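Let's practice the habit of predicting before peeking. Look at the sequence and jot down your guess about where helices and strands might fall. Then scroll down.
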Amino acid sequence: MMRLWGRKSSINVQKVLWCLAELGLKEGSDFERIDAGLQFGIVRSPEFLKLNPNGLVPTLEDGDLVLWESNTIMRYLAAQYDKNKRFPSDVKSQFGSEKWMDWQVGTLWPVLRPTFLGLTRVPEAERDHAAIQKAYQDTNQLFALLDQTLESQAYCSGKQFHIGDIVLALCVHRWILLNETFPKQTGLRTDLKNIGRWVKQLQAETHFQEFAEKELNIISK
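Done guessing? Here is the structure:
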């Protein structure tokens, strides 16, 4: 049985759990999940560091294969376990999805992350409010690029849902939650109608609702 290390409140673990659900794989029967990270600890233990020297979640064990980096784990799961063809495998769809996955981890998340960490991990007295708001407003501009793409196609890679939609949707969801929870600190959130349509579509047609956070996991120090 596969083993997934990671707490459900981690956006990167949520990606993998959502992907597993789309593939019809269930926790407890098809894979085991072990809470790790933040309040659960474990990730700095010698045993865990042998699996993932970064000391981060998620980490996946599948037989003698050990993977870390959430987007890589999702690519592996889609390649290895998509028996019912949930995700399109043609080259155009695959690499249309891949480019957005790389954009999410290399461009989008580094910009949104300072707002997220600043408002959920840093004590209020120590927050750099100007940097937090600037990062959020810069994220508005980045999401406008996705909104432009979704004006002419249903999903990030074309006509069909793909794993790229998972990584983007969870970031969009955090972007919305941050604004709803901390409206003064983030400043205005741009109303992007195509993203709004896409999110509603994901809510209706996928397992999105099962893994999107209902509220932010705020750590007070």
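How did you do? Residues 91-211 form a domain with the Glutathione S-transferase Yfyf (Class Pi); Chain A, domain 2 fold (CATH 1.20.1050.10).
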